[in-house]
């Protein structure tokens, strides 16, 4: 087990190759992790001790001490602004965990958070990306508790960031293709590889983070914080946008009002380019619908080899998504059981019932696709 954990931490920089080379400052993972524009390393090194002592006065002084001048924020690039928000966010979450609204005791933090939000084109507080992907690894890792399980949870989320970023390309390609096109199955197979990282991540979480630790020790640090009269969620795992994949596979035209409402809240915590992807694809014809139209499985008894391959590939991706969601529900049920939980809903604002609803939607779409290959058919001979 320790060997596996150590390997993941040693491999945590695997997000950098390929991503760092893109013209997107939020993908410059290594630079953001190295950045310390607030010179916050010393204070963050003792943050777990402040939290163990519930030392609200010390946390308040630390937050006030770290605040940059507005003129300094104006000079920062996106990388520096992201790192600054990351570090301030650790004190926001800590103060709220101990029953103190951060901007009530440090009101001067409000304009700084708003300025950082504008500079980074993100919400004016830290997100799951700040807490995990953009968080340094090793001796400089920012943690609320300093406990090994907290580090394991951060590693689990780090695992999926590069795959989600890559899925934007494969899903965008999928949205432009028809099931008869050979590229349709290829795009789905590549997407399946990306989604598998989510299953690997949740398996790692099950093995290395206990539901009791998450529910009773870590979950309180992810409570919402008021900024400029609006409540902003903490760095919730629900902000890891699996909807990027759902969107073009099935969600854009097979959705539910409850999932729609949840996404409307969750999307704003994403990266700007990911929000743009959502805006571009939230209305359209999903891969499931296009395959259903192409196969016309109500009457047809013959599928071309390419169409059959597309159906198999689409069913495979949906099966992986279903597996992830089933295991996620298993974790959530344990963490939010009556004898364990401190909160009624998840840190992303979703109740268990919504997780079940999305799992059911995923399963229904998988069943719909599997009908295309379940009945005996005579493949149409290829003349290629």
From TrEMBL:
Name of one Pfam family that matches: PrnB
Domain of life: Bacteria
Signal sequence coordinates: none
Official protein name in the record: Monodechloroaminopyrrolnitrin synthase PrnB
Originating species: Streptomyces chryseus
Lineage: Bacteria, Bacillati, Actinomycetota, Actinomycetes, Kitasatosporales
């Amino acid at each position: 087990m320790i060997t596996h954990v150590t390997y993941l931490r040693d491999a945590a920089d695997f997000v950098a190759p390929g991503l760092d080379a893109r013209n997107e400052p939020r993908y410059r993972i290594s630079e953001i992790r190295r950045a310390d524009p607030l010179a916050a390393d010393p204070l963050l090194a003792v943050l777990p001790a402040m939290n163990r002592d519930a030392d609200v006065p010390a946390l308040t002084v630390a937050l006030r001490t770290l605040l940059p001048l507005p003129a300094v924020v104006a000079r920062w690039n996106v990388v520096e602004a992201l790192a600054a928000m990351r570090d301030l966010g650790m004190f926001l979450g800590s103060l709220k965990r101990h029953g103190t609204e951060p901007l009530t005791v440090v009101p001067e933090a409000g304009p700084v958070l708003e300025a950082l939000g504008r500079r980074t084109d993100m919400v004016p507080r830290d997100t799951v990306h700040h807490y995990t992907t953009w968080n340094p690894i090793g001796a400089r890792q920012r943690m609320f508790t300093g406990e090994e399980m907290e580090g394991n949870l951060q590693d689990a989320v780090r695992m999926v960031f590069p795959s989600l970023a890559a899925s934007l390309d494969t899903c965008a390609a999928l949205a432009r293709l028809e099931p008869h096109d050979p590229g349709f199955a290829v795009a789905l197979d590549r997407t399946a590889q990306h989604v598998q990282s989510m299953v690997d991540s949740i398996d790692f979480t099950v093995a290395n983070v206990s539901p009791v630790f998450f529910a009773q020790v870590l979950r309180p640090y992810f409570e919402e914080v008021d900024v400029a009269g609006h409540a902003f969620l903490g760095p919730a795992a629900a902000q890891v946008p699996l909807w990027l994949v759902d969107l073009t596979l099935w969600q854009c035209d097979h959705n539910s009002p409850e999932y729609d409402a949840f996404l409307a809240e969750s999307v704003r915590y994403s990266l700007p380019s990911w929000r743009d992807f959502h805006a571009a694809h939230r209305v359209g014809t999903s891969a499931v619908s296009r395959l259903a139209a192409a196969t016309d499985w109500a009457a047809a008894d013959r599928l071309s080899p390419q169409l059959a391959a597309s159906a198999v590939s689409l069913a495979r991706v949906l099966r992986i998504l279903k597996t992830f969601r089933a295991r996620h529900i298993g974790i959530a049920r344990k963490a939010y059981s009556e004898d364990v939980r401190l909160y009624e809903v998840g840190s992303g604002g979703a109740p268990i019932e919504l997780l079940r609803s999305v799992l059911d939607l995923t399963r229904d779409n998988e069943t719909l696709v599997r009908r295309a290959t379940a009945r005996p058919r005579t493949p149409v001979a290829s003349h290629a």
